Write the structure tokens for this entry.
Amino acid sequence: MNIILLSGGSGKRLWPLSNDVRSKQFIPIFETEAGNYESMVQRVYRQIRKADPDAEVTIATARSQVSAICHQLGGEVSISVEPCRRDTFPAISLTAAYLKDVRGISEEEAVLICPVDPYVEMDYFEALKKMEKQVYKNEANLVLLGIEPAYPSEKYGYIIPENAKDISLVSRFQEKPDKKRAEKYIREGALWNGGVFACRLGYLLKRAHQFMEFTDYQELFDKYSMLERISFDYRVVEQESRIQVMRFSGRWKDLGTWNTLTEAMDKSCIGDARMNEECENVHIINELDIPILAMGLQGVVISASPQGVLVSDKEQSSYIKPFVDGIDRQTMFAEKSWGSYRVLNVGENSLTIKVTLNPGHRMNYHSHKNRNEVWVAISGKGRTVVDGMEQVICPGDVVTMEAGCRHTVIADRNLQLQLVEIQLGKEISVHDKQKYSMEY
Amino acid sequence: MNIILLSGGSGKRLWPLSNDVRSKQFIPIFETEAGNYESMVQRVYRQIRKADPDAEVTIATARSQVSAICHQLGGEVSISVEPCRRDTFPAISLTAAYLKDVRGISEEEAVLICPVDPYVEMDYFEALKKMEKQVYKNEANLVLLGIEPAYPSEKYGYIIPENAKDISLVSRFQEKPDKKRAEKYIREGALWNGGVFACRLGYLLKRAHQFMEFTDYQELFDKYSMLERISFDYRVVEQESRIQVMRFSGRWKDLGTWNTLTEAMDKSCIGDARMNEECENVHIINELDIPILAMGLQGVVISASPQGVLVSDKEQSSYIKPFVDGIDRQTMFAEKSWGSYRVLNVGENSLTIKVTLNPGHRMNYHSHKNRNEVWVAISGKGRTVVDGMEQVICPGDVVTMEAGCRHTVIADRNLQLQLVEIQLGKEISVHDKQKYSMEY
């Protein structure tokens, strides 16, 4: 099974647990059997591996999400990076070219394209397998997944099938309707459009070449920023006449707001949180390292991260976007391919952060124009390289780096390394970074 | 006017803004005309100075509060330090001895003893002045302040006066009653016991010598831990037959819970906090440096500090004590005589804190047995002394201190100095501190 997972989205609706570099699909919120917490990305990836251990999974995403994906799924996963955001038709086309030219997949093979963040059970992946089989039957160019509607939602597009069979040709599409129309469509047998498409790889490439001029993956990648912003639905799906829909009646949830997300939580508290018995229908997700205490609340979600604290009536939680727009967006925590960091203190001309390097991982060899830095190791072991000079670093060791000086740090193969990094300068910015290749 | 302010109390009811070293009277919560925030201690002290610029104010308190008092009121205020907690009779006796032996006040002078934390207006201090005059009339040994009850409270003791005049002899006292009895007392003309006593200094010393053997202040101080725990009310007030009560009908509030405290707030938000229009009767006090957003809440208080986050229905907020007992009590922030500190990160064998030294202030010259330390200056200017060696410290400068090494830091006369201090060791404790005299 070849699966393309589309990983997009901003983080505003699930602030403060999401931020500019952590979209909602990376929030660790679902309890695993081992008692840890996994994110939507990790959950879906685990489910795919369970449904088909040999699945070829490719994640189509923006550059800003690559670190988080590597951190959460490990370096093994195949990623097709969009140089910038250009909606789903260019994104899917680029990934199709990537599958053919980089991964060497035959145009005859079936490909499944799915969002990365549906909250589903294993029957969903069984349905994907059926869709793949359906592609090989050559009854249609494109097969969609139609979700049996749970209620007349105004949030989804609707697919009207020709008949009520498990697999049917599509009669027509309807955009997100108001509630009354949604009720009418449902009476006509309409299904929610789950955003899942199955077809042959060659079909994707044919459509890509039809609307964009390019010879191969690299060329499409290079001209990506010049491509028209247009969705796969508009450009391809709604123009296709040989199109079928497969009916799906299993659990399918879009966890886009705090209200829906907390419904999927197994426990009412994650992190250091406690509440008294007078609390009803209260969820707390605390990523801060200080305790949260809730007393006598009803129907409230509390979520906290180094980015901020939200306390919201669950119904109201879907309206937070404009308020979050008004809040300063300095990124206070992030997952990186090599580990993670979190801001401890924002000073006028200083920034103090905690850096965690995973065992065996390293930062890029880099320098900053406008700031000096100091590293103080607080746990673990590793090596630093500063202007070519290599040194072992242990807890209590201090490394000072002037602006312009090239530096990196590498964690011991078997030990996580933690540093306090103090940045000093008048113009501290994440963009002030020059990377160098490194032979150490 | 000689005033003894009794400053006691633990911080549990107003967690997380109070902690083991910050009692509720030190929380900056009342907006001043200048737009800053002052604490109950600062407010009462300012009001006393306004009522009587020449007032001799002495604060009777525990050692643990001395730093906060110096930080909030400046070094000028006179403090009588209790070596340990021994209830109000020993505390008042010790302070009386302090006034006579250390401050040289005559036994003939009147003394007013008040709690440090009533929420009152200027008329309260006019009442104190009248009490002082009443003492000099020699109609009684002791004059009390009786607050006209606003409702049949179960939280206060009651004073039953002989008549309804402004000043009356006391008929009897009643301990905290249930509501029904409180109603009965009020029908009989009872007043709340405001915990304010006025008498001559000599009277306090006479009673002290009657029950405790000592010659002077120093002797009482030295044997303080051996004294019986007993309140001034039990030991003195309720035994006194020549006792009057002065009626007070002005504003008098005991701001002991979040519910009552927020009633006294001028604005609904302090700190980086915002709420949508659907919020009603919501108060946010945010001492964290990350934003808090409230959506669609009713009758809720949110308070946050480096100690933790409380989100409570206002009525329920008076029941937090047992929950706070269950929360780890490591002190995460504190005011010191020289400035303040706040914990940024708690590691397994490290502690990272931000230290702020006020202009011209210095730490004690000290060492630690079980930890190394690193200072990195992040703003301001100052000097460090490490094992006798003095050095200027500016932003970016790093000072490393091995366990056992003696050290201090002194802020420039005109500039606040901020440091990140990283403590490293297996047994990090605030008690691991050896102080030295210092001639720098």
The mean pLDDT of chain B is 94.
